[in-house]
Amino acid sequence: MGYKKYDLTSAEIKALANLALQEQGSIDGACAELSLMANLFEQQSKYKTLYEYVRKSDWFANAAYWMDNGKAGAIYQLYAGYVLCEGLRTVPGHINEHDCLTDIKSISTGEVKDKSAYKAGKTIIKNRHGSTYTFYCFPAKGSDPFGYTSPEAPQSGSIQGLIERETDLASIPYTETGTNHQLFSMIVNNAGLAGYQDSAWCCTYQFAMEILEFGVDKALEHWNMTRNTYCGYSCFDTYDKFYSVGKTGKIPELGALVVFVHSHIGRVLAIDSDSRTFLCGEGNTSNEKYDRSGDSCAVKVYAWDDPRIKGFCYIDYVQADARKEHKGTLFAFGNVNYNEDGEFKTDDYVLQTLLRGRGFKGQNGKELVLDGKAQGNTMYAANSYMDARAKEGVDLGERDCWGPKCWADIFGRKAID
Q: 336-411 maps to which CATH number?
């Protein structure tokens, strides 16, 4: 799911940035204000353009004056372009209210002027104009409280959407405002998680992309985290979360996170199995390979077995396009049939390794023994995998035979007929 991108002139961007700065007084607050402008415009039908709505609707105080006379500098204008023209909103689309504290009549969880009393998703705000809404966040220390009159609808997203976002950001190119200050921490912070603004942001960038595409709840599920256990700001802690549930490995899959040994992270955007390379989207970097301290986003090429890759973290995207590869040859292995005589076969060993890595156990409830013999426990685990995929709408054929379709599916590649 992507937010609408607006085609604005440089003069319109400057005017909207002027007003956003006047309303909120900081770059983080202004980005939230710009996001709110777009949200509100998309919820009305009277005005035909975003610019006209903001200027004439009377929702924003003295809008025309501040749009013409505000003092937003180049950074504010740059980030107004990111939010409105690139769809990088720092608050989600259902956020449609904010008030300065002097316009708030009461809150349900304490005193109006006590900002610590505002609880995301719990505090009910009543303002002096007759509106009632639920608190979402303070985008910055000096910002107004932002909120919503209706809860967020479930977001639909896709791995292709993530790929397009990271590719677009690398081609703009996106640039941070200063030393590690950027939009992605704003997105995570505003969602009530630890974005760690002004710190290394390669991992936060990847989680913010998940929020934009799927919403925060689905993003947490994808990363095997909860609000209480969130650690999506740390490369190695994130890897450990995936490792603990058997979702790491050494082979790239589309959409998988790429964790490097030098504490850096990216995402697999495309795979070329001919050359055994993949495209990697990264934040807090430059076009230089392995860079983890740059100020922008980039897409780079790495070998599957690059020694500086710690491992891949696999995310269970359920969309049909989640396991397509970019180009190149496709994986083909022979059938692995129920093998009562225990004959050692390389394919059987590979199958055991993959099933064990994904958490599928034998009929005895134990991890598979890596002995290269496709006997009872191995085929029980294989059948369990096929049953799990069937529940997700993927038919891998008859049980007790692990054929090309199964190999293709578990490797994340297109099946060979």
A: 1.10.101
